[in-house]
């Protein structure tokens, strides 16, 4: 990685560590070698408090080789671009070699609109599996700390997702 590593997920075989790079790459580190597994830099807004923020492997990774990432895209960027700002969870399948993606398996599973156009939106960034098999996401106040106190707001929330649900997931606020 180029020094912007933000999260790691160890392969169950103990030989590979997947590194999430803020700029939008997932890198497989094996001993002294590194391979880019996934490169979505063209889809990620890696600026200030945004970028590829986390990676986690499915609890049954040994059987399904599925990984999940949480990242931000759109809004005002350091290049002056402007577009709809949102945070996303995506899934993809890692090939049996452990260092490449199975073609055509990258899927955006959930999109969270953010009210603020700048990436300085306190995006949170932790995704993790719980013993119940659900994927949990903790997001920040999305740039609106007052809304985070409102139970009806998305800001400052925890969500759970059934990862076995096909298509785009339904968000359940915890």
Characterization of the model:
With 174 residues, this protein is an all-beta fold. Helices cover 2% and strands 39% of the residues. The chain has a 4-stranded antiparallel beta sheet, with no helix packed on it. Strands 5-6-7-8 form a 4-stranded antiparallel beta sheet, with no helix packed on it. A 4-stranded antiparallel beta sheet has the order 9-10-11-12, with no helix packed on it. The chain starts with a strand and ends with a strand. The mean pLDDT is 83.
Features of the shown structure:
single chain, four-stranded antiparallel beta sheet, mainly beta, 174 residues
The tally of helices reads 1
Can you list the strand order of the major beta sheet? 1-2-3-4
Share of helical residues: under 10%
Any idea what the shape is?
A: globular
Total beta-strand segments: 12
State the low-pLDDT regions, or none. Answer: none
First and last CA, distance: 34 Å
Main sheet record: 4 strands, antiparallel
Short description:
This protein is mainly beta and 174 residues long.
Question: Helices, strands, pairings?
Answer:
Blueprint: E1 5-10, E2 17-21, E3 25-30, E4 33-39, E5 52-57, H1 61-64, E6 66-73, E7 86-93, E8 107-113, E9 126-129, E10 135-138, E11 158-161, E12 172-173
Antiparallel strand pairs: 1-2, 2-3, 3-4, 5-6, 6-7, 7-8, 9-10, 10-11, 11-12
């Amino acid at each position: 990685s180029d020094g912007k590593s933000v999260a790691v997920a160890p392969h169950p075989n103990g030989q590979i560590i997947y590194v999430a790079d803020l700029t939008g790459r997932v890198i497989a580190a094996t001993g002294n070698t590194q391979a880019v597994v996934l490169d979505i830099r063209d889809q990620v807004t890696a600026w200030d408090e945004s970028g590829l923020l986390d990676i986690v492997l499915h609890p049954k990774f040994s059987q399904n080789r599925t990984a999940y990432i949480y990242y931000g895209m759109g809004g005002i960027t350091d290049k002056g671009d402007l577009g709809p700002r949102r945070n996303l969870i995506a899934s993809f399948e890692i090939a049996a070699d452990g260092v490449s993606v199975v073609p055509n398996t990258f899927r955006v599973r959930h999109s969270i609109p953010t009210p603020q156009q700048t990436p300085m939106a306190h995006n949170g960034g932790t995704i993790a599996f719980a013993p119940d098999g659900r994927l949990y996401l903790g997001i920040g106040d999305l740039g609106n700390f007052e809304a985070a106190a409102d139970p009806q707001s998305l800001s400052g929330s925890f969500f759970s997702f059934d990862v076995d649900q096909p298509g785009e997931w339904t968000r359940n606020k915890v």
